[in-house]
Amino acid sequence: MSQAKDVLQTYQKYYVDRDYEQVDLFQLLKSExxxxxxxxxxxxxxxxxxxxxxxxxxxxxxxxxxxFFQQExxxxxxxxxxxxxxxxxxxxFYSVDYNRTISELVDSxxxxxxxxxxxxxxxxxxxxxxxxxxxxxxxxxxAGLAALDKDYKLIATxxxxxxxxxxxxxxxxxxxxxxxxxxxxxxxxxTLGRGVGYTKTAPLYLFRRVS
Length: 211
Ligand SMILES: C[S@@+](CC[C@H](N)C(=O)[O-])C[C@H]1O[C@@H](n2cnc3c(N)ncnc32)[C@H](O)[C@@H]1O
Known about the structure:
By secondary structure, the chain is an alpha/beta fold. The chain has helices at about 5-15, 25-30, 50, 65-70, 70-80, 120-125, 140-145, 185-190, and strands at about 35-40, 55-60, 90-95, 110-115, 130-135, 150-160, 165-170, 205-210.
């Protein structure tokens, strides 16, 4: 199998076949917010942010992710073929544990992505500019953790109806009210490592870094 096929097939298998590319989600975010640099810790090979955003930095310690990104020309060609902008894509891949600070990324991004990969809101907060956005789901309790973090403010929720993403700015105070518990702590969520039940939920949340 050629290397080019490897890149295409790997991306196809994990993201196209699973209807989980999220290209339209990234498009929606670009149309709504000023975003220049995106950082995606725990990205695996989810390179669709680069179809919409010119500058994206990916961080993942998985060896298959490293092998994928090492095929630079094929990755670049895949992005070139799908991109929605004129400029040459700028992608960086860091094959490291995201808990280790990458100094050149500190205070550099306008959008930090956290999907199914642990406590990124905390470990990678320093990469996000004040005023920048965190897009996060609650699979690994990271959204719940951000909700307890005074450095973040919930500004919107993201929903998907009939395969279309939609951003909602309403009823935000109704989210992150835990079912059956009156008090949730960061320590509790760290120990649990997965999302707890809330009375009202969304597939994805948008927080702004406020301090
Ligand atoms: C379930 S996958 C999710 C991939 C991608 N975010 C998505 O939504 O398809 C989790 C990824 O996070 C990476 N990951 C988890 N903990 C990590 C860490 N501490 N440092 C770097 N990568 C990590 C794993 O290697 C894996 O590729």
